[in-house]
Amino acid sequence: MNARVTRRRFIAITGAAAGLELLPFGSMAGERAKAVIWRGVALGAVASLQIHHYDRSAAERLVAQSVAEVRRLERIFSLYRDDSSLVALNRHGILAAPPQELVELLGESKRAASLTGSAFDPTVQPLWTLYADHFSRSDADAGGPPAAEIARALDKVGFDKVLVHQDRIAFARPGMALTLNGIAQGYITDRIVALLRSGGIDHSLVDLGETRALGSHPDGRSWEIAIADPDDAGRTAAVLPIVDRAVATSGAYGFRFDPPGRFNHLFDPASGNCAYRYRSVTTVARTATLADAYSTAFSLMSEEQIRPLMPRAGIERVHLVDARGDISDFVG
């Protein structure tokens, strides 16, 4: 198996029980280690899951459990499923008896918001709606939404206006909405890693939009995580070796509202404008939840703001590609 993964291109989970190599399915050596492969769609992307185990039934069970867990968590966090808890909250402005996972993730989100001075803020969804509606019009002003409309959307932004309790979650103002796209993929990745670990998997690479390695590669070396070139997703800009760590990348190239790419999905909750400081921000942390959240927040912060924050945030390494294409890579 090629251990190098280029992020944001696909979702993949590969794992092996203790003592097993991660071998190509169908090889002669792979026949000693029963391999079970699942392919489908998860979290809105093409997905694959491959488990190697001495016991084929154990591998099949882990595959089924992993797929079921992703589906279950999608029904909580997805913005694109009408039956998700998050969609219900955004629709009604209140959610009684919320799932524990949603309460837990909002708690993690509040901590990230506090540490970053609200650079991380899941309440920016009204800005997404504003920009999406604006650029969907045939006569859309290429300069973006009018300042007055941005100001109205910003009136609905602010994590301090979200009340989070075990028994209910509520918005303080009408028209507010949350997006957890800046942290939920990392959280789901961590849950799958925990599931695989409890099932006896000691070597695994899980890529659910954010990448996390469980242990080292079975041959003892580091896993290699390729960072996509922000100007050409098919090319590799850098490779990070990791063992038992998570990697996440945020960049304006992930989604652009307009053809020139002046407006993207990374919103500044203070100004309502889009992030422009970096082409991409990559973080390394012990968990994918942390790596995911802070790669998003750091997209709006200067290097001078990022460096002292890293130890408190649990971020071990940051790889920045700035607007000119210059690269900074530093550890916390």
Topology (SSEs and partners):
Blueprint (H helix, E strand, L loop, with lengths): L3 E3 L4 E7 L16 E9 L2 E9 L2 H22 L7 H8 L1 E3 L3 H16 L9 H12 L10 H8 L7 E3 L3 E4 L12 H15 L2 E7 L3 E4 L8 E7 L2 E11 L3 E5 L27 E8 L2 H11 L4 H11 L1 E8 L4 E5 L1
Description:
The longest helix has 22 residues, at 56-77. The protein has helices at 56-77, 85-92, 100-115, 125-136, 147-154, 184-198, 288-298, 303-313, and strands spanning 4-6, 11-17, 34-42, 45-53, 94-96, 162-164, 168-171, 201-207, 211-214, 223-229, 232-242, 246-250, 278-285, 315-322, 327-331. The protein is of the alpha+beta class. The strands form three sheets. Strands 3-4-2-8-9-12-13-14-15 form a nine-stranded mixed sheet, covered by helices on one side. Strands 1-10-11 form a three-stranded mixed sheet, with no helix packed on it. Helix 1 packs antiparallel against helix 6, helix 3 crosses helix 7 (288-298) and helix 6 packs antiparallel against helix 7 (288-298).
